[in-house]
Amino acid sequence: MLLSVVIPCYNEEENVQLFYDTIVHVFGQLMENTELIFVNDGSEDRTYTYLKQIYEESPYQVKVVSFSRNFGKEAALLAGLEHAKGDLTAIIDADLQQRPEYILEMMDILNKHPEYDAVAAYQEERKEGKVLTFFKNCFYKIINGITKMEMVRSASDFRLLKRNVVDAICALPEKCRFSKGIFSWVGFNTYYMPYTVEERAHGTTKWSFWKLFIYAIDGIVAFSTTPLTVSSLLGILLCIFSGILMMIIIIKTLIWGDPVAGFPTLASIILFTSGIQLLCTGIIGQYLAKNYTETKNRPVYIVKDLLDSEKNKEK
Ligand code: UDP
Ligand code: MG
User: Fold this and answer.
1) I need a surface site. Which of 92, 105, 226, 260 has the fewest CB within 10 A?
2) Exposed e or buried b for every residue in 57-93, given b needs 16+ CB within 10 A?
3) How would residue 280 be classed by pLDDT, with cut points 50, 70 and 90?
4) Among 54-63, 116-125, 192-201, 261-270, which is the least confidently predicted range?
5) What is the pLDDT averaged over residues 286-312?
6) Of 6, 20, 93, 212, best ligand 1 pocket probe by most atoms within 8 Å of the beta carbon
7) Which residues approach ligand 1 with their CB closer than 6 A?
8) How far is Cα 45 from Cα 262, in angstroms, rounded to an integer?
9) What is the DSSP string of 261-294?
10) Which residues are 194's β-sheet partners?
């Protein structure tokens, strides 16, 4: 049985060798039946040099898929899964925040419980600020509320997938890939395993608050059209409200005449309605933008260079 391990790397020059040494040490004998797939997501530092060195020196199966530029982690994950040949495929970060030991635990779980198709690790306690935790909680509440899927809070991309799950994920043709949603959308029996996240070995996270915020909006737009329904509902509610207001004004004018008053009310109403209009146009715009990107049908990533130790052996 072959195990593929997908490792997305973006500017991880200080981590890749350390990661390689750690996984080789932890896996031991298992490395004979493991292929490591490093996806170099357009790193601007020396990540590629180190990956090439690993590829050249490693006695094990190593693939290095290099992108022509930085396409983002989602693209790197897809590339890794598409290049994975294993009966089981694990996804793990290069920064050693996720200890490779857990992959062995995941394999144990799948061996003991053959009814499961995937194991997803989730963080038991999050090592992050209260504000971020609050926003993340809100995101999961919203997305689970408006989609029919159950996205488990704190479940990461750190997973072990059986072949059928990998095939299902790779078969999805969409270009805007929100992997948290895709993992839930494809279904299958997933076992959720708690794990403790480590500190980053070197370097810093690539996620700022705004990147996360935009990622969250992307996720909602990719998996639900409820915001469109909400904007239509808002429109209907405003129509009813303005109808009632008009009636009141007509009746007041008929009974008490037409004293010139109510400018502040008028100004507030105009601001309020134009705000709602902009919000709704924005929501529609989000969907239109997604449509636009999808119809352009550009590839999710472009491979500049592929190093594959298996192919070399065949030559
Ligand atoms: N990563 C990537 N492309 C990107 C950003 C990140 O391949 O554009 C990789 C990164 O090298 C790491 C993993 O995705 O292996 C997780 O990234 P990071 O540690 O920055 O995220 P965090 O752990 O803070 O969620
Ligand atoms: Mg990390």
Assistant:
1) 260
2) eeebbbbbbbbeebbbbbbbbbbbbbbbebebbbbbb
3) confident
4) 261-270
5) 88
6) 93
7) 8-10, 12, 41, 70, 72-73, 76, 93-95, 97, 205-207
8) 63
9) --HHHHHHHHHHHHHHHHHHHHHHHHHHHHHHHH
10) 122
Angle at the Cα of 286 (from 280 to 289), degrees rounded to 5? 140
Q: Report how far residue 20's alpha carbon sits from residue 62's, in angstroms, rounded to the nearest whole number.
A: 10
Contact between 179 and 79 (Cβ < 8 Å): no
Pairing of strands 155-162, 88-91: antiparallel
What the block records as the tokens of 235 is 């429109």
Residue nearest atom 5 in ligand 1 by C-alpha distance: 73
219-245: pLDDT as tens digits? 888 888 888 888 888 888 888 888 888
Q: What is the DSSP string of 167-236?
A: HHHHH---SS--HHHHHHHT---EEEEEE-PPPPSSS--S--HHHHHHHHHHHHHHH--HHHHHHHHHHH
User: How many C-beta atoms surround the C-beta of residue 94 within 10 A?
Assistant: 27
The H or E element spanning position 17 is helix 16-27
Residue 123 structure tokens: 């963080």
Tokens of 179: 């992997």
Confidence of residue 76 (pLDDT cuts 50, 70, 90): very high
Q: What percent of the chain has pLDDT over 90?
A: 46
Whose tokens are 């933008």? That residue is 289
Distance between CA atoms of 111 and 119, rounded to whole angstroms? Answer: 11
> Whose alpha carbon is nearest atom 18 of ligand 1?
205
217 sits in the region (left: phi over 0; alpha: psi -120 to 50; else beta) called: alpha
Rounded to whole angstroms, how far apart are CA atoms 126 and 105?
Answer: 20
